[in-house]
Write a structure and sequence with these properties.
single chain, 207 residues, ATP/GTP-binding protein, nucleotide-binding, 8 strands, disordered N terminus, Rossmann fold, binds guanosine-5'-triphosphate, P-loop_NTPase, alpha/beta
Length: 207
């Protein structure tokens, strides 16, 4: 039997375009509860794969849930989604787990990625230091996106200073719940990757 007719949800999950020729792995990383799963869900054109588990009493004293009070579930492996940015370019999105006890998975998730979005809750900037540290260690290009949970007094430049980022790293704002806003974040990352790939290397510049 034709699977398209037997699956009523199929129309809502468009197949990959026949013109798609470039597939790029992108990771969304950041501390606990900053909105990584929300972003992958908001922007994915296919039904996203999530590994969400309910947080139970067993996690009390193990997991630091400060700053994300109303949250009842957490990612225990990764989220996966897909978005076609244009006729040819397809991004495969991986949302990292945010609990500290899963941070050891990040290095494996970064494997083969072309670029990373570090999602930040401006009220818990310190939760982002480890992500920035690992990315700088691996030399993986990244941008920082501040998730607009509620109005904050700090500017994006102050966030850049707090994370000790060079001017070359884009810092943008977004609402992870909003598809268009999340898509703009991914476009900023792709622009950054293009800029890096077309910039003359330090060696060429010196010669
Ligand atoms: N007000 C507001 N709430 C948001 C925003 N983004 C996400 N949330 C909420 O914040 C909570 C955390 O979102 P998640 O997407 O689960 O966060 P996460 O980073 O995947 O969390 P872990 O996987 O547990 O690290 C959810 O209840 C979201 O609905 C936002 O921009 N504004
Ligand atoms: Mg999550």
């Amino acid at each position: 039997m034709d699977s398209a007719t037997s699956d009523p949800g199929a129309a809502a999950r468009p197949p990959l375009r026949s013109t798609a020729s470039d597939g790029v792995k992108i990771v969304v990383v950041g501390g606990f509860g900053v909105g990584k799963t929300t972003m992958v869900r908001a922007v994915s054109e296919i039904r996203p794969l999530s590994t969400e588990e309910v947080m139970t009493q067993a996690g009390v004293g193990v997991d630091d849930t400060a700053g994300a009070g109303g949250k009842t579930t957490t990612t225990i492996a990764f989220d996966f989604g897909r978005i076609s940015l244009d006729e040819e370019l397809v991004l495969y999105l991986f949302g990292a787990p945010g609990q500290k006890r899963f941070w050891f998975l990040w290095d494996q998730l970064f494997s083969g990625t072309l670029g990373v979005v570090v999602l930040v809750d401006a009220h818990r900037v310190e939760d982002s230091w480890y992500a920035v540290d690992r990315l700088e260690h691996h030399g993986i290009p990244f941008i920082v996106a501040r998730n607009r949970f509620e109005p904050v007094a700090h500017t994006l430049e102050e966030l850049r200073e707090a994370l000790d980022l060079p001017d070359s790293v884009p810092v943008v704002e977004c609402d992870a719940r909003d598809r268009e806003s999340s898509k703009q974040v991914l476009l900023s990352l792709v622009d950054h990757l293009y800029a890096l790939s077309s910039a003359p290397s330090a060696r060429e510049t010196a010669s």
